[in-house]
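HUMAN: You are asked to prepare a plain-text protein record giving the amino acid sequence and the backbone structure tokens, both parts labelled.

ASSISTANT:
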Amino acid sequence: MSEDTKQSDQDLADEWAAALEEQVDDDSGQDDWAAALEEQADAESSADQPSPAPLNKLDDEGKPRTDVDLDMVLDIPVTISMEIGRTRISIRNLLQLSQGSVVELDRLAGEPMDVLVNDTLIAHGEVVVVNDKFGIRLTDVISAAERIKKLR
């Protein structure tokens, strides 16, 4: 390396060091910001606001505990769907489907359907017809403990 290159590298390093020292000096404003955020957090934690109850507390039998406050989630909408079965086909076969085509599913006739809430299995059931509308009669409900385990 030439002497000029070494000198320019040293000058550049000195400039960076000076800039970093200035930045450290300017961090006193950030200390004020951190102190203000800490003060706000202390004020909020000491306020007389009830803390929300945890939703995942279960008793020894896997049933939800009675001291859990679920009022805040009772009005949240969810999507419930029933799945008869699934299959995988190629795009070629998909494009050949027409009216009257039959698609074979992975379930046997009479086998229970899956009941899904937001794409999470919660139960199995059988199809029923009530007043000319389809419905599902639940035959097996997944326990709350097992559903919570699947969420984690």
Remarks:
- The mean pLDDT is 77.
- The chain has two domains: 3-46, 80-151.
- Residues 125 and 137 are 5 Å apart (CA to CA).
- Strands lie at 80-83, 113-117, 120-130, 133-141.
